């Protein structure tokens, strides 16, 4: 009788062990399914984040371009008003000593190879330059960026080992300037002439200030500029020229410009360019 009871007790223990094992297996399976659901949700969230990040990057680029266009329009309006307020003087002017940077290398008066003559039909090459993820154009030139950075970039957002222009440009900084180009070669040509004119060194000599003005003697639109953005975008139109820095009143800068003009030193060295 005792042996029968022991056998029954052992049988029950084995059954309980089997039941416990089955229950533990069910818990493990439920945990595994929960982990799979969490992983799927994480992947979906990551995809949504990547999509939203791409939309934000596209939006930043579009806003930057719109701000550039708005700034050009505002610059033209300010120029018209200033010319109306500052008449050209008929006699020589005894103006305060100008404190420009040293004269810069003069761009040639004939059409530059970087800018085809007006009327030239531009066609896309058979092998187009690559446009990396996050960008709408194959090349960007940062003319004024963070920490005085300037250069040609082949991506808008950093892609793998390729640095992006966005990393060095802040649209909230009024003096920052970036420009997109339809080909790498075009970006490189514009940037090379910009550097050959010594403009980057001129801008790095001193931090932007309220009384800083620029007298453009040679450029697409010779004039006086009140800001660095106006200098690069409107007067030089992203190319090169001969530029002086003047510290003082804007009206005095125009007086000096008018004197340069009477002396025959003011030249338009490029036609306005409507393609990039």
Count of separate structural domains? 1
How far the N terminus sits from the C terminus, by CA atoms, comes to 102 Å
Structural class: alpha+beta
The biggest beta sheet, please? Answer: 4 strands, mixed
Order of helices and strands: HEEEHHEEHEHE
Radius of gyration from the alpha-carbon trace, in angstroms: 33 Å
Number of strands: 7
Task: Report the sheet-strand fraction.
Answer: 5-15%
Overall shape: it is: rod-shaped
Q: How confident is the prediction overall: mean pLDDT?
A: 76
Low-confidence stretches: 80-127
The helix content is: 40-55%
Total number of helical segments? 5
Explain the overall architecture.
With 276 residues, the protein is an alpha+beta fold. It has one domain. 45% of the residues lie in helices and 12% in strands. It has helices at residues 2-85, 184-196, 199-204, 228-235, 250-262, and strands spanning 139-144, 151-153, 177-181, 212-219, 223-225, 242-247, 267-268. The strands form two sheets. Strands 4, 5, 6 and 7 form a four-stranded mixed sheet that branches. Helix 1 (2-85) packs across helix 4 (228-235). It is rod-shaped, with a radius of gyration of 33 Å. The termini are far apart.
Topology:
Elements: H1 2-85, E1 139-144, E2 151-153, E3 177-181, H2 184-196, H3 199-204, E4 212-219, E5 223-225, H4 228-235, E6 242-247, H5 250-262, E7 267-268
Parallel strand pairs: 4-7
Antiparallel strand pairs: 1-2, 1-3, 4-5, 4-6
Helix pairs in contact: 1-4
Key features of this structure:
5 helices, 3-stranded antiparallel β-sheet, 276 residues, rod-shaped, alpha+beta, 4-stranded mixed β-sheet, coiled coil, 12% strand
